[in-house]
Amino acid sequence: MILPFHLVKSCGGFVFAAQGSDIHTFSSALEHVSTWKYPAQPVDKPHEPSAETQSSPAPEGPPAKRRKVEDCQDSVSIGQPAESTNGKPKSKKAAQYDCPANERPFIQGLYATADGRHLIAITGADKTIWVFEHDLAATLTLTRSMPKRPCALALTTDNRTILSADKFGDVYALPLLPSSTSKSVENSTANQSSPRSTTSSIQTPSRSTTPSAKPFKPQADPLTVHTKRNLKALEAQKISLARREAILREQQQAANRPQFEHTLLLGHVSMLTAICVGTSSSVDGRPREYIITADRDEHIRVSRGVPQAHVIEGFCLGHEDFVSRLCVAPGGRAELLISGGGDDDLFVWDWLHGTLLGRAGVLEHVKEVAGHEAASKVALTRIFACRWEGVRVVVFVVVECVPALFQFELLEDNTLQHRETIPLPGNPLDMEAIETPGATPRLLVAVYPGEEGGSSLIPLDKEEAGWRLGRVENLPAGGDANIGDEELQKILYSTESLRKSSDFD
Amino acid sequence: MGGDKIRKDKRQKREDYRAAIRKEGVSELPRKKFYRQRAHANPFSDHQLIYPPHPDQMDWSSLYPDYVVDEPQEQQTPGPETPSDLDLAPLRPKRISKEVEVADIGCGFGGLLVALGPLMPDTLVLGLEIRVQVTQFVEDRIKALRVQDQEAKLYRNVGVLRANTMKFLPNFFRKGQLSKIFICFPDPHFKARKHKQRIVSTTLNSEYAYVLRPGGVVYTITDVPDLHEWMVQHFEAHPSFERVPEEEQEADTLVNVMRTETEEGKKVERNKGQKHVALFRRLEDPAW
After folding, report:
1. In which domain, by residue range, is A342 found?
2. pTM of the full predicted structure?
3. Rounded to a whole number, what is the distance in Å from the CA of B241 to chain A's nearest CA?
4. Count of beta carbons in the 10 Å neighbourhood of residue B19
5. Which residue from A216, B163, B172, B244 has the least number of CB within 10 angstroms?
6. Binding site residues of B for S-adenosyl-L-methionine, as ranges?
7. Is the residue at A251 inside a domain?
8. What is the number of domains present in chain A?
9. What are phi and psi of A485, to 5 degrees?
10. A502 vs B136, which has greater pLDDT?
């Protein structure tokens, strides 16, 4: 079946849209420029020359953009989902959800640096972060496979560091581009070892290896185990110790291979769902960065930025279900945070002081679209805020499986007010604003058209009579994916699954 | 099945016992054998936990009824508020005159709690335990002790809660609320694969630093040398903590209480095991 576009991101005058595991580039006038394909297994598609994946020059307008696929083949585990570091195959569940028919994993997130020079993508099953350089020619510059699956990314304000929040609850900092020394190291390993082993050679910087890794030795001793069976087990453990040590030595040699720079900054004991960076000026008036993270257990945590990320400044507590999205308000209102998730409302916070400023109902508007009986809860998938007509700050909200956009306005008194509900021909998956100087921004929405088909990428223009739904001409057809409708929906609609199932009273 | 029958009998006895102890006004101390539970709990699972969304919404009055403040009712009357206003200021639970200042994380059967109560009569001490049965035991134990010590009014300052502190510590305590945290004989999680479940880790230490006031102390004790080393390494590596020097540690009376009064401490004593103690002081946050 034909996959819908499920992610859109505007970056440096271009628009990028993900469709399954491919990323398409469009000009700001929405003309298709080029396509990057997730590197496929060579055996599968031996006929595919690299020229095909490289772009043909755009007919007019923006300069042609080229993607190099062959560059990355040395550093990517090709095709199959990467194996975890201890050589155990990925869990069945992940493989099933993200690698339809054991193919290429879906792009799970698209991010752009504020300067518009780099585009960053994450793929799920292989836990990889992809960095694309976006100059005159956009090139895949770097891939890095994380110890755990990244759920969300943010960039520091200097555009140099990626903050990766993962499923395991940890936040890692990694340089957007490697410093010159580590780059050379990375290249050399890429050349000398097989593609597979490069990605899997990255040592897992788990809590167990910080602050220092130690050789294995049985932790229990005859004084701490009390039962006969446990004592016996301890004996057995000691006997096999010598053998284990030999294996360990081998492993350590493997682990000594160079790895990319990454630092553990902070962690929740819960799955992270969103991360963003807030700034506020300190006592001496200089701007200070803060890392705001949200998890499945209703928490929003505010930590200081690097290098004091270990200091928790506060929490924004009040959500009673999972938090799935965070958004720092634009337009000089950076002290405000808008959050949402499984609760019926959107929350507005003074994030630095952890105070709740306001709530705005979403469920009531969802009911107007989906029917009062059908809709009983909200799983919020996007909060998108932008400046509108100069001073206004508008917030668009996407709710999972509801075919509409909900528009709110952030008022002067820091509350959110519902302005309108924009009906759509399908369930929205992602949205982005395309800024055009001097005019109101144009919205671009990725929708899942459903079984009837129809365009999956819809531009929206605000006109006096209301919103005009546009069309993107010559949409790239996109590969046929070997995936059933049900399976696809599981991938596209994953937010509701964050809800805890235990509340059946 | 014979096994099933035995289990059923056991459960039945347990229920009968607990019903009886409730009826008889809980003057008798509960017996452990009716409250046993597997020693490990998975801190990553959702369980069916009850916790406040925000520390301000925590109702402490049922845990420390002697400290409830009688407030005039006028605060309770809601004005002409819109629903959203009500949501913003949820009903405040009954206030208590003091705040919890000492937490025993993983209090088990409550030996330390019961020892600390009379030792720091002016401080509210809270035990937190993830296992339901064990929490129930401590609850019944405190109830019984309060009845027994009617005149001296002891144990009015100790309470116990079922909670997963690895996830929900900031739901119960505000920033800098605690002066002491006890982590006594935590689950060692021997397997390397399970190290992430340990109660002390680089990232969790940030949460302990958050709820502790500068100058506050984390007390740790274990009979597992490697776990001791692990805890020392992780606290020393954390910029918000420094280790308390040994002389000062030994001068602290609470250290001795922790060594001898915890249930696990007594068990280690019986088995002639070693006990490793380490204390860590919360440092002032650097300027930012």
Report:
1. 316-423
2. 0.81
3. 11
4. 10
5. A216
6. 106, 129-130, 164-165, 184, 262-264
7. no
8. 1
9. -60, -40
10. B136
